[in-house]
Design brief:
Elongation Factor Tu (Ef-tu), domain 3; alpha+beta; about 35% strand; conserved putative lor/sdh protein from methanococcus maripaludis s2 fold
């Protein structure tokens, strides 16, 4: 049967041949995209596309981390004696004065111990008096020659032992008095109760937290910086803390960026999380109405991109996203080629960090849509 070339060209591939054809074409197209060899033909009338040069010598980067507010002066009050909590005199959010009672623990055991210590002091005092009288009598008899020197030495040692026993009894009474005082927990300074950790009737043991208090008005931001980004944080020329709007602020008032009064980096990293704690003291006038525990964002900005752990930052509009492909158009000679990249953290609303796919000194198109058109050329710099 004669064959018709036209009909042969219009005839679709068989089911067996179609997958083989796709398998042969797709790898070639994917390799061209990822290797950056896909370029468009030049066009004489195409307008030049603006570009930016990636440089670690002049670019600066910034990083953000989640942090929290913490009181500059905060104390967790714990029990020092065991017993049932018979009274919890404060609630969370309540203001207390220095010396004000926070909680009271059953003091019957400590009261009994104090009574026993008092009895011990009385007994030791009587023994000391008897030893003193015996020593005085023995000295008189020794002076008259009625007792030997050995008897005088024995009376002296008995007197010294009785005096030491009295001192020991008095020390035990002081200890019992102090322990009884531990049954009442008081505020160490003027503060606000941040939290209570027990209820009346709970069993308190030595070391168990009862309440946490803090001095209002003086807050700091605490942030855990990954050890890998410590050099970048140290090299930052500007550190800012994003605070939530104060209570009662209008709905239109958003978060605000403030500069800390002082910043401190702890000298050691956490062995488990591999983070370094930074403490940023804040101006009391800017933290009015805020309290410990609120979430904040800390931004380290102005570090040179050449610092350890830093990466170039480019405008987010320069990134081309097509499905699972994330790429930029890099300048190669007088044309653009597509280059797959790996993105890092977002830097603000309109910038993104580049981790891989490009190198310092390369130029990329600021407008990937125009750079992908036929005949697109890079603008001169």
């Amino acid at each position: 049967m004669p064959t018709d070339p036209v009909s042969m060209q219009a005839r679709p591939l068989s089911r067996a041949a179609a997958p083989a054809a796709r398998a042969a074409v797709l790898p070639l197209l994917g390799a061209a995209l990822l290797a950056g060899t896909l370029a468009w033909p030049r066009h004489a009338h195409a307008e030049p596309v603006p570009t930016v040069t990636l440089s670690t010598a002049t670019d600066v980067v910034s990083v953000r981390f989640d942090g929290r507010l913490q009181a500059l002066r905060q104390s967790t009050l714990a029990a020092q004696v065991g017993g049932n909590v018979v009274e919890l005199a404060v609630q969370a959010g309540e203001r207390v004065r220095a010396g004000q009672r926070i909680a009271r623990i059953d003091e019957r055991d400590t009261a009994a111990a104090l009574a026993a210590a008092d009895a011990g002091v009385a007994q030791a005092l009587a023994a000391a008096k008897a030893a003193k009288l015996n020593l005085d009598r023995t000295r008189d008899l020794s002076a008259q020659g009625f007792v030997s020197e050995a008897a005088l030495d024995l009376a002296q040692s008995q007197h010294d032992a009785a005096a030491a026993g009295l001192a020991q009894a008095r020390a035990a009474r002081s200890q019992a008095t102090l322990a009884r005082g531990f049954a009442t927990i008081t505020a160490p300074f003027d503060a606000v109760v941040l939290a209570t950790h027990v209820e009346a009737g709970d069993l308190a043991a030595p070391g168990r937290p009862l309440a946490t208090v803090y001095v209002p008005g003086r807050l700091r931001a605490v942030v855990d910086v990954p050890a890998s980004a410590s050099a970048l944080a140290r090299g930052a020329t500007r550190v800012e803390v994003q605070l939530p709007p104060p209570p009662g602020a209008p709905a239109a008032a958003g978060a605000r960026w403030v500069a800390p009064l002082a910043r401190t980096e702890l000298p050691a990293a956490d062995p488990v999380s591999q983070t370094v704690e930074w403490r940023l003291e804040l101006d009391p006038a800017q933290t009015a109405g805020l309290g410990p525990g609120q979430a904040v964002t800390v931004r380290f900005a102005g570090a040179p991109a050449g610092a350890a752990g830093a990466r170039p930052v480019v405008p987010a509009s320069a990134i081309l996203r097509r499905g699972e492909l994330t790429a930029v158009y890099a300048v190669q000679g007088e044309r653009f080629v597509l280059r797959a990249v790996r993105l890092g953290a977002a830097q603000g609303r309109d910038a993104v960090e580049l981790l891989a796919g490009v190198k310092p000194g390369e130029r990329i198109a600021l407008d990937p849509v125009r750079a992908g058109l036929a005949g697109a050329t890079p603008a001169a710099q």
